[in-house]
Each structure stands twice: as structure tokens, then as C-alpha cells.
Amino acid sequence: MRRILITGALGQIGCELANRLRQLYGDDAVLTTDIRQDLTEATLSGPFRLLDVTDGNAFYEAAQEHRADTIIHLAALLSATAETKPMLAWQLNMGGLLNALETARALGCQLFAPSSIAAFGPDTPKNGTPQDTLQRPATMYGINKVAGELLCDYYFHKYGIDTRGLRFPGLISHAAPPGGGTTDYAVDMYVNAVKTGKYTSYIDKGTFLDMMYMPDAIESVIKLMEADASRLKHRNAFNVTAMSVDPEAIAVSIRRRLPNFELDYGIDPLRQAIADGWPDAIDVSAAREEWDFCAEYDLDKMTDDMLSSLFGKQL
Ligand code: AKB
């Protein structure tokens, strides 16, 4: 049975992952941590602890007192916020990851650390982006992600720490809002479709980005963490995605259910420039071959589930 510590547990991925892990391993086995405390299911359904991941001693103590054998390190600034606060992004994204790796080393924990499609850059092949390819990102977040991928590989090769990770695309969900990302527009579009019937996209039409629905992201984390280590050639930073979409494609999918939905554009130059430096569609064959990755939700199936969940919440 696992004993898991999750950092950044009140974020978009953390709150849904914590629930699923508590279903699988029991409420008390999963310690959720975050720098803030909100009264959500992630804090109320099992143990919760305030944790600033840049404090290495506090990180170690939290993991040791919980008798953690698994660390899921999600605390990070996302791409758009990182671009406006690059020093803070370096301190939090790199400092937090180093503390997670050092704690995993001291306690012999398995470690999951997410990477992102942001780890690619403008010179990377845009379509069918291979698992192993040129990575020269032009954003602070992307630089953090490449450095993080390399650090996780380093701790595996040098210290034998069982580090694993995924390069997440934009993640779409209805439970907790994303914050500070470039792909957040997709979530905003669904929320506004239900609330007001219209949305102004800050990302331009024709800008294709990889996306995945949260249930597929959660199952991917669990599947990778449980995967037979002898099959893993890459370990960290597996490309995963379920679809490549632009704002128009999402709008078309929404209009199958809400025919009057209106989409217009008010481009944000910062987030558009970030998106322009990312791939259109990445290749997931390494994840398929090494741990049987598969995504259940395509665009329309995701749209149907998002809309019915959001209508159920009476926004
Ligand atoms: C972001 O937009 O910053 C994130 C990501 C793709 O890593 N969703």
C-alpha cells in the first residue's frame, strides 16, 4: 500500500488526483499539502498540511512524519505567471523540485514531477513532435521544465531515485480552476459558454495546441507510477496528449450542444507568443510502447462531459 504526499494539492490537477488516490489507497494514506488552505474536498477528506515547497526542511519533515513512500510534486507557477514573475518562477519551480528530489533521496521515495509541452520551443518540430527532439524553449516556465526533466533523470542515474514524469498538454477540467497558464483559455471557454453563452478568446484562431481531459491525465499519472520499471526507457517527461485543437474547434464542439454559443477574439500578446512557441501536436508513441498510455476522451466526448458537469454546478 502506498503512502503519498502531494504538493500543490489545491491546484487544478492536485484536487482531482488527491480524490482518486484516496479512493485507491485510502483517505489517510494521502497527505495533501499546499501553501494555502481552502476548505475543499482535498483538504477535508483526509490529512492536510500547509507546506511551502521552497522550505527544504519543512518538505522533508512533512514527508517523514507522513511516512511517505511516494511524492507527487505539483506545486509550480504556470507559463503566463512565470513569464511575468521569472525570478519567483525560478525559485519556486526549481527550488521546489530540488527539495522534492532531495526529500525523495533521503527517504527513498518514488517521485512524480510533471513536465509540459512548454519544454519544447520555437525550433522544435511542430507536428508529430517526437519524444526525443530539440528542446530550446524561450520562456522561463519552459526553461524550468527542461531543467526539471534533466534533474529528474540525473537523480535516477546518480542516486537510483525512482523518478517518473509526463509532459502534460493543456488540461481541461471543471472541478478546480487552472491559474496562470496559457492553455487556460479552453477551460474559460466552457465555463463562459455555460454562464453567458459567449467567450472572448485571448488565443487566436488557428493556434493549435495539445489538450487532454483531466480524467485521462489522472489515470495517466497512476498508470505511469504503477508501470513496470523494466519497461521504462524514458522514465521522465513522456509526451502525452488526447487531441490537438484551436479555439474554433472547441467552439464547434460546444455548438453541438449550445448552438447559439458566440466566440470572438481579443488576443493577449504575452500568452499568444507563448502558445506560438509550443508544438501543434506531439507524438505519444513512447508512452504507448513503454506503459500502454491511452486517452479515453476525444474533443466531443470531453465537451459533453464538461458541459453537463458545469450545468450541474449552476455557475
Ligand atoms: C500552461 O498553459 O502553462 C500549462 C501547461 C501546458 O503546462 N497548462
From TrEMBL:
Which ranges of the sequence are coiled-coil? none
Extract the Gene3D superfamilies matched here.
NAD(P)-binding Rossmann-like Domain
Per its UniProt record, what InterPro entries does this chain match?
Epimerase_deHydtase, NAD(P)-bd_dom_sf, NAD(P)_epim/dehydratase
NAD-dependent epimerase/dehydratase domain: residues covered: 4-232
PANTHER family hit by this protein: L-THREONINE 3-DEHYDROGENASE, L-THREONINE 3-DEHYDROGENASE, MITOCHONDRIAL
Its family remark reads: Belongs to the NAD(P)-dependent epimerase/dehydratase family.
User: How is this protein named in the record?
Assistant: NAD-dependent epimerase/dehydratase family protein
* Organism the protein comes from: Cohnella silvisoli
Organism lineage reads as:
Bacteria, Bacillati, Bacillota, Bacilli, Bacillales
